[in-house]
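Researcher: I'm comparing several assemblies side by side, and this is the next one on my list. It has 318 residues spread over three chains. Same procedure as the others: predict the full complex and return the structure.
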Amino acid sequence: MDNSSWVDTSLDLNINPPRVKSDAPVDAESFGVPRKMKPTFMFQTKPSAKEETGAIEEELNRVSEENRKLTEMLTVMCENYNALRNQLMDCMCKNGEKELHGPSKKRKSASSNNNDNNIAMNGNSESSSTDEELSKKPREEVIKAKTSRAYVRTEAGDKSLIVKDGYQWRKYGQKVTRDNPSPRAYFKCSFAPSCPVKKKVQRSIDDQSVLVATYEGEHNHPHPSMEATSGSSHGLTLGSVPCSASLASSGKTNITLDLTKSKSSNDAKSSKPKTDAPEVRQFLVEQMASSLTKDPNFTAALAAAISGRMLQQNHTKW
DNA sequence: CGGATTTGACCCGCGC
DNA sequence: GCGCGGGTCAAATCCG
């Protein structure tokens, strides 16, 4: 299983860097920076357009380099994390063998809970059913085949069971299950009255900051954001692939991406993650960049960071 | 006021 | 048959 799908460190938002060499002077607003938040140095001195362009170009290069270094650091961190996680999984498997092969436990707890843990740790969204289970429960085959999971990291203090995936959901129940102290919320797709899709959201028993969303069924309608790409939601989707991007920028910017694959029964052959294709990756990155730049908090935080950097650099120069 | 959410009651399948 | 537990219903409540 590809563990890297859980944390994709190749998040380079500089997909289409602004053309700083163009004749027109670069305006801060072109980066989504409000006019009132322009870096103050722009007003303190009146550099020529060329000097200004050069400075910004230099800054851009520096930021790109910094971005590249951070990406490398993240990659290393993720590798270490994956190694540690694998070790933990080994230990858990060894310890769990007794329980799994012990006296037959309750009907669903074994399949749901253990799979939750395993898949959550591996960070992939797959059908939770095994061959053994399917043979045992042929009745659930159809439903199971259309079941997928998504994992969304939330703020530590956030206790809401809301997973922004772009679809419109109506909550119809909540239950505290036995094997997880966190309540499980039940949702139905309310975008289309006839849509049979249901969603269960529950916090991971291992990591309370991770929401586990279990989707059952397939939407019989296009994605809302595909019909009206208003961009009001941060949720991103690609066909039936449930994706979500949560953004929190309060001083520091924290971006959580969860790109999971839905194992649809219709395209079972195309089980290979669609995000492999470079153009799809490009599309996803563009979507994310678009969502980010539309977020006022993000642009404000970005502007503050850039102006802070520029001020800092000015201080070192003067 | 209408739609969404909450929450206790109820239903149903499974194991004993 | 009974009890347990997950899933769903629906009345009450909330909220924009």
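Model: For your comparison table: Residues 104, 106-108, 170-174, 190 of chain A lie near DNA strand B (CB under 10 Å from a C1').
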